């Protein structure tokens, strides 16, 4: 209570003191002291009982809020009124405080009106909804039309904070016209208020969106687009600043920065499904803004925009690449704060409308990430570089393993071996271990481990060997015990022979952690190696710091299995089993992917073979149709020749005929029977060998006397060709056609010789 009385007395002194009679330094001192005691009193009101507030604060407050008092006294009265309104019932506030509130809202000083306007929010929450509509809302409307810009701005902020207390009718008929007039007036003539308006714009639109018509909704959206381009001119798709005075240009840049801050809220206001048609160009303009502060604010809220877009996230892929490749490290630093979340959302929610959304891939993402890292590495801001490398640990969930292997791994090795900043080197080592942990190809993993051993564990520089021990500490946390012991433990213990004392010193500090990775009795030989390493250090070490450290480490090793609680050991074993299962699962996934790729390759080969066979079948059917037509022509010609031979044989019936048939005639007749129309269908209906032979000998008996010299090899070959499979018949169609033409020529020659003999 002493503090309250002291505060009130000091305030009384501040209120009653005629400042015009005091010197400037003393007046300034009294103002500072009075404001400090005022803040103390306002903080103490929350803990005071109602009676104390009524007697000690409200009683003098009534007199000190009069117009005859000084401006600081009236300003203090405004703040006290706003604070005590929440302590009393609505009836007390309405009866005792509202008259003072009305008086101060109509004060002659704009500072008092502005201060009281900002306290109307607390007054409204103290008197309830009904009295707010009847008392507070008319005061706000009047203050929103005040001649002072600070008063109008205070009224605008208060209206936004009280939107949930107004019903739909008040929002439509009172608030919307008032806010619309305020926005238009600020945009045309009051640039000072535009900064606050743009900062509160997202909250304003969401508070009124439920009462908007389509026309009102469109008006607020278009006004926001105007604010985003304030002070810019667009030429050839680029945003350039117009030549304004420096002060005005800074105000416009602040407005655009506030618009970038409110952009996620405006995406929700405009509906994410309409983002491409309504807000994409505005967002692109903010991401390409000439002011660094605007681009930085857009980068800070980029992850929120990606969340809201969902399956339409591919709309902003270009803007993501633009911000990653920005010339300013401030923009990159702002984007890095939520880069992991942004990249995962941008690459995992691609199943939406559009052909490119099915592919979970951001074009030019990998080159942009590489460029960003090189830019951070070339600057003097190593913390940004460290932060970027830390965010790169999410890349196994974002890009493919081959891209990481060919584009990022070598860069990590270069940073570890050549960078001069220790935190950056350690973060690069951690990122390298993460890349190794989630690589799915056994060959690549083995090559990475071999490179770690060659360039770090066996490196020429002791600095690289120290980084190998740092990498081992990280690998113990990331990998299972069996994996670490298999690939890293022996190489770490071999550094006991390192010629540099700093390496041996660090190895001594790591011995307890290395011992924790050994599982008995399976790794008994590794335990023997570690004990041999400790004995070697104890016997041969000459550096006093290393000797002291190894002696201390030996004591820790002896106490490890005794002092550690069972539940901690059990939790660590369960975690190690989980890591080992994950590593086994990665190997199984690698094997499954390999089998699937091989099966896919075999299927593609089988499909290609079928396609070639189908093409060959089509060309064979075309050849068969041509051979069938040729066979028809040759058969008609053969019939005419046989009729002529029969006529000649009847006229020469007196000459004796030889009962045996020569091989050449057999060949000729078989060829003729093969060229009959029925043979053209032999690929579909097989011909019986007995029928073929009977047909051959019946035809040959009528012309046996006209056969030329014998041929012994043609008969068996022709029978095999006519009784073969349909595939062979198709493949040899062109050859059969040539043989038929040759037999016709031989036959005509034989008739010529016979006629010459006759």
Task: Give a nutshell description of this structure.
This is Protein phosphatase 4 regulatory subunit 4. The protein is mostly helical and 758 residues long.
How would you explain this protein's 3D organization?
The radius of gyration is 48 Å and the shape is extended. Strand 1 (232-235) and strand 2 form a beta hairpin. The protein has a domain at 1-17 and 24-166: Alpha Horseshoe (Leucine-rich Repeat Variant). Strands 1-2 form a two-stranded antiparallel sheet. The protein has helices at residues 2-16, 24-45, 50-64, 71-84, 90-105, 110-118, 120-127, 129-144, 149-161, 168-189, 191-208, 214-228, 246-261, 263-270, 275-278, 280-287, 292-300, 302-309, 317-324, 329-336, 339-348, 365-378, 382-391, 401-407, 409-418, 422-437, 442-457, 462-478, 481-493, 501-516, 524-540, 544-563, 566-651, 663-674, 689-701, 714-722, 726-731, 733-757, and strands at 232-235, 238-241. With 758 residues, the chain is mainly α. It contains 38 helices and two strands. Residues 655-665, 740-758 have a biased composition (Polar residues). Keywords: Signal.
